[in-house]
Design goal:
Helix content: 55-70%
Number of helices: 10
Largest sheet: 2 strands, parallel
Oligomer: single chain
Structural class: mainly alpha
């Protein structure tokens, strides 16, 4: 113990209890602190005390912890090589997405890069969904329901002519992020981010999301 604590001297021990509703707890803590001081242990200060507390005394810290979701599954990044292989093996889907991207204000080279990043996010999210389904099937079902609800309203929320630039696409992503975070609060930010961008890629390739030609399209 001496090598572990070094020169540290303990002055206070916080005894955390689920319910603090009796003065007997304080009396018990005071008695035990006095007994410990009488032992003259090298790592206890002469003014050593035991304080009784409950989680209500740390309400702000408790709220911060509870409001910060813990990752249900790890996000594993897809390699660029795997992205290239997937794009090559799904040319019909990716060609459809590229054709749609040609209608917004992106050059040919920008479209290629944009699609590559979208496919990357799509694969990241699909792999994460597989792990989520295995570990937390209820959460997986909630995610899929939230995404389907958004998909069914795409034409209503983003009618033809309302999405003409990449920044407009960002708006759809932000909206989906908000929906996912609200409807499935257990999800952490990296998962929500990948899921939102991955959904854009999926919708572009499967047809639910489309654009009208804009003046700046090339």
């Amino acid at each position: 113990m001496g090598s572990l604590l070094g020169s540290v001297r303990i002055k206070q021990y916080i005894f955390l209890v689920p319910i603090f509703d009796s003065a007997k707890l304080v009396q018990h803590a005071s008695t035990k602190a006095e007994e410990m001081r009488a032992l003259n242990l090298p790592h206890l200060g002469q003014d050593f005390t035991i304080t009784v507390a409950s989680d209500s005394m740390f309400a702000r810290e408790r709220s911060e912890v509870l409001e910060r979701p813990t990752a249900l599954v790890d996000m594993v990044q897809t390699s660029l090589e795997d992205v290239d292989v997937w794009i090559s093996g799904n040319s019909e889907l990716t060609s459809k997405a590229l054709e749609k991207l040609s209608r917004i204000q992106l050059s040919a080279s920008q479209r290629e890069s944009y699609l590559e990043q979208l496919v990357n996010q799509f694969l990241d999210s699909e792999n994460a969904l597989l792990r989520l389904r295995e570990k937390y099937p209820d959460q997986w079902e909630a995610v899929m329901d939230a995404r389907k609800r958004k998909e069914r309203k795409l034409v209503l929320e983003y009618p033809p002519g309302s999405t003409n630039t990449a920044m407009d696409v960002n708006g759809i992503v932000r909206s989906l992020k908000e929906d996912l975070s609200r409807q499935v609060p257990a999800l952490d930010d990296p998962f929500v981010d990948a899921m939102s961008w991955g959904s854009i890629a999926d919708w572009l390739m499967r047809c639910p999301l489309d654009f009208e030609p804009s003046e700046g399209a090339q």
